[in-house]
Amino acid sequence: MTEATTKTNLVDDSLARYLGTTIRELRQKHGLTIADVAEQIGISRGMLSKIENAQTSTSLETVTKLAGAFGVSLSTLFRNYNMPVGGAQHVKDGAGMEVVRRGTKCGHTYHLLAYEQGQRRLFEPFLITMDDASEVFPTFEHSGIEFIYMLDGKLEYRHGQHTYLLEPGDALTFRGDVPHGPENLIQLPIRFLAIIYYVESS
Description:
This protein is of the alpha+beta class. Helices cover 28% and strands 29% of the residues. It folds into 2 domains: 3-77, lambda repressor-like DNA-binding domains (434 Repressor (Amino-terminal Domain), Orthogonal Bundle); 97-197, Jelly Rolls, CATH 2.60.120.10. It is built from 5 helices and 7 strands. A hairpin with a 2-residue loop joins β4 and β5 (162-166). The two termini are 46 Å apart.
């Protein structure tokens, strides 16, 4: 058996399993028996059972009739076939990992909202909360670009020689290698998103 033939057989098997599982799920969702569907589209119960169990291939005509029996289009029937698995990371509200950064004290918390795997970091998204107006903050410097989006409260934020008044809905984007940080907490509590994107060197 050639490599091309092997690949074709793998695709055929995968498609048959997907089609069989999808047809079974649709049939059960509609509360239909194998006999109900087989009679409606004009094939034997044994044939439909084999299709559902990926024990036989079937014609496009039969697949079209099956889609019609469940009231779906062919595109809907195959929309999840060969779909990438993906790798999303879901962090529930309040479940972000609390991290300690230079200058972090009581009343000033960082919650990391995504965790990069491996040694290379592409970005770091933080939810930062401040509720102590007496706290004094150091300036920060780091590589990459930082983006801040204000959620609650009001503060003055310094970047280099300039300060910016940030209120809910405001955004600030800047180079991380310029000294920056909160300078004056005006209205508490303060919450904002800070996303650091680490630019790769060319």
